[in-house]
Write a structure and sequence with these properties.
36% helix; alpha+beta; globular; RNase_T2_His_AS_1; ribonuclease T2 activity; hydrolase; nuclease; signal
């Protein structure tokens, strides 16, 4: 009986040592990870604004582009991996009926006629990830309030950065936004022929989209000098 008891103790000690060894190897990410509660499967939120004239210089648009940043989305994200949300409530247009006029102005689709389809896609691709914290109405309302609070055109103008056909350094754009918000954004750019255009600016927010935080490093723009176009080049 004593021999059986000690054998069980030795087996238990061996299993504990084996688990510790695994956690010191390539499996450490599994051992050390703490499952996030089902209510929130993301760490922070990107608030993404796009420069309409860059979008429409890079692809055909169905609506006239203006010299403005408009909302592209509010995207829950994770520091460790791509955020994936496979379930959640469907988009219900009547839930945001009181916001439609503002959304049409601040969150239009430049490449689709129907803005509602655009909002539906944004909600079902991104918004459902934050549904436990930001239900549908709160999600769209939060984006509108952020757009009003952080006017990128005004923020850049404070550092004499305008859509003028001039070229500005990515660092100066980043610094202008950091000066105004206290934190660095992410800058996205794309080439039009051989001209790097500023296309999108990502502000990073805490999980409930109430406070700006520092964005993680990114490789969204590989160019140092960028243009903010003031018109369509083919015009």
């Amino acid at each position: 009986m004593k021999g059986t008891y000690w054998r069980l103790i030795l087996i238990l000690i061996f299993q504990l040592h084996l688990q510790a060894a695994l956690c010191d190897t390539e499996f450490s990410n599994v051992c050390n990870s703490v499952p996030k509660p089902p209510a929130r499967q993301y760490d922070f939120i990107y608030f993404v604004q796009q420069w309409q004239l860059s979008v429409c210089n890079l692809r055909s648009c169905l609506k006239p582009a203006r010299q403005v940043f408009s909302i592209h989305g509010l995207w829950p994200a994770s520091y460790s991996s791509k955020t994936q949300c496979n379930c959640g409530s469907e988009f219900v247009p009547k839930k945001i009926s009181d916001l439609v006029n503002k959304l049409n102005m601040e969150w239009p689709s430049m490449i689709h006629e129907d803005n509602t389809e655009y909002w539906k896609n944004e909600w079902e691709s991104h918004g459902i990830c934050s549904e436990a914290v930001l239900p549908q109405h709160a999600y769209f309302d939060a984006a509108l309030k952020l757009k009003q609070k952080y006017s990128l055109v005004d923020i850049l103008a404070q550092k004499d950065i305008y859509a003028s056909g001039n070229v500005y350094s990515k660092g100066s754009i980043t610094e202008a936004i950091k000066t105004a918000t206290g934190h660095s954004p992410q800058i996205q750019c794309k080439l039009y022929k051989e001209i790097p255009l500023l296309t999108q600016i990502f502000l990073c927010l805490d999980y409930n989209a109430t406070k700006i935080i520092e964005c993680p490093p990114s490789k969204r723009c590989q160019y140092e000098d960028l243009m903010i176009p003031y018109s369509l080049f083919n015009n």
